[in-house]
Design a protein that fits this description.
By secondary structure, the protein is of the alpha+beta class. The protein folds into 3 domains: about 35-45 and about 285-355, conserved putative lor/sdh protein from methanococcus maripaludis s2 fold; about 50-60 and about 200-280, Elongation Factor Tu (Ef-tu), domain 3 (Beta Barrel), CATH 2.40.30.170; about 65-170, Helix Hairpins (Orthogonal Bundle), CATH 1.10.287. It has 3 helices and 21 strands.
């Protein structure tokens, strides 16, 4: 009998504890969630178009050769600063050396023949003036002299050709800059047109952005633009310098070049950016902008929580448009003079009680 009373007492104890937990849970669920709200941000300036692009150096080069041969020396590495004319790559040129020796021998031979022909021509010129040589003999000697002269000139031009090929055997820096790529090493076979060294001159940068055909005509020439460097979360300024007039080779996207203004921001070639282009319109328009962190994303739907008149969370679905930086344009779903929740101390849901901080 004692054991029976003990079991009954434990059961009642667990039931009381369980009921106490349920009551506590209900009280917690009824507690309002503390939230922060913000007002709609309006942009009364001219509307803008955003486009993605990449930063590149204004002065850059991919160096290659037009001859085939084994690489014998690569005295630079990626990141090295080089001066104009500094040797970057050497290619085996033993065949060029042999060809140069042949050309020099040909020049010596042509020069001797020309000297001899010139003497004969001057001698016959005097004899012809004294009527001691016939017209035909003088004409033959003149032709022989001219041919010798032409052979000498041809031999010299062949030497110029060989000398030009030596420039492709020893690749030198075309300007002061920094080595940004090295695609070959000692012992590799260099082929015509194959990139060997990439370099650029730091300090001046530009952006190449792609714009759809429906918007390219709206971008004004020489327009001042803002450029957001995504990796640094910094905004720099620039000016439109070139507008492409053809998208034949770019898949329907028109290329726009933007020259960046001088800045202290540590930008590098290859960084991805978002460019904000002002576009031509007849009248100014008003844009509604909200920060991206305030958006609620469910699949392909975007929304934002607002506070109802009864102080509860209300999810409003939005139609969003263009984005720039950490803000996005709201096309419908919110209007001016409305507020929205930007952060909360708990998980929000439709109908949740909220308390504005």
């Amino acid at each position: 009998m004692k054991n029976k009373y003990t079991i009954t007492f434990l059961a009642l104890t667990f039931l009381a504890v369980g009921c106490g937990n349920d009551e506590k849970k209900i009280i917690t669920d009824d507690s309002p969630i503390t939230v922060k709200v913000s007002s709609i941000s309006k942009n009364d300036n001219n509307p803008f178009l955003t486009a993605s692009g990449t930063i590149q150096a204004v002065n850059s080069a991919n160096l290659s050769t037009r001859m085939m041969g084994f690489v014998t020396s690569t005295p630079v590495n990626i990141g090295d600063k080089v001066k104009k004319g500094q040797l970057l790559v050497s290619i085996n040129n033993s065949d060029l050396q042999a060809k140069l020796s042949q050309v020099n021998a040909g020049i010596a031979e042509a020069n001797a023949a020309f000297t001899n022909a010139e003497k004969d021509y001057n001698r016959f010129k005097i004899l012809f003036a004294e009527n001691s040589a016939s017209q035909k003999e003088f004409d033959d000697m003149t032709a022989h002299y001219n041919m010798a002269k032409a052979r000498l000139e041809g031999a010299k031009q062949m030497k110029n050709e060989v000398d030009a090929q030596f420039a492709y055997a020893n690749i030198r820096a075309p300007f002061d800059g920094v080595v940004t790529g090295k695609y070959i090493k000692n012992g590799d076979m260099a082929n015509p047109g194959m990139p060997l060294i990439a370099m650029e001159a730091p300090g001046k940068f530009e952006v190449m952005a792609s714009v759809p055909e429906s918007e390219i005509s709206k971008i004004p020439t020489n327009a001042s633009v803002n450029v957001l460097v995504k990796s640094l979360n910094k905004t720099v300024t620039g000016k439109v310098t070139e507008l492409s007039s053809s998208a034949k080779n770019t898949g329907g996207q028109y290329m726009v070049k933007v020259a960046l203004d001088k800045t202290d921001t540590s930008i590098l070639s290859g960084m991805f950016v978002t460019v904000q282009f002002p576009i031509k319109v007849q009248e100014k328009s008003e844009m509604v902008l909200i920060p991206k962190e305030a958006l609620v994303n469910k699949g392909q739907l975007f929304g934002v929580y607002t506070v109802s008149e009864s102080n509860t969370a209300l999810l409003r679905w939005l139609r969003i448009g263009r984005a720039f930086g950490n803000q996005v344009e709201v096309l419908s779903g919110l209007s001016a003079n409305e507020s929205y929740i930007i952060s909360a101390d708990g998980k929000l849901f439709n109908g949740a009680k909220v308390s504005i901080q």
